[in-house]
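Session log. Operator J.P. requested a structure for one protein chain; no other inputs attached. Running the standard single-chain path with token output.
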Amino acid sequence: MSKYHVTTTVNNDEFEFLCEPTQTMLDVLRDELNLTGSKEGCATGDCGACSVVMDGRLVCSCLVLGVEMEGKSIETIEGMADGDDLHPLQQKFLDHAALQCGICTPGVLVSAKALLEKNPDPTETEVRYWLAGNLCRCTGYDKIIRAVMDAAKEMRAA
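Structure written below.
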């Protein structure tokens, strides 16, 4: 099986790589680009642990082929902080103790950021609806929802 040459932008950095036609974006991110923040929780698009933003659209990277990254702009959890400065969502997750094992956290953060970019003033119901595709087996969701709502409030005030 021949490999495909792909050129893409991930977190504003240009990447070129070779991948098998059956490799998922998640596999490429983790194995080829060494961006291990996105996690594989199910490999079926049901848990949201591998959520990334591709050309402005939230996707499960386990359901997208690596070859589909060609010419696309991808945003992962690694691109959320600005150096040592955490994104407000990341800080609020710490402040509200909205994480435990960390498997779901990158996907929840990426999903929440995508929501707040589209809707900076969501209701609690809208946050719950938007994050419904992200499963958390450790914390429950109350602290996560409170952290997102608090971050939205802080970001609007800034």
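Operator note: The beta strands are 4-10, 13-19, 51-54, 57-60, 73-75.
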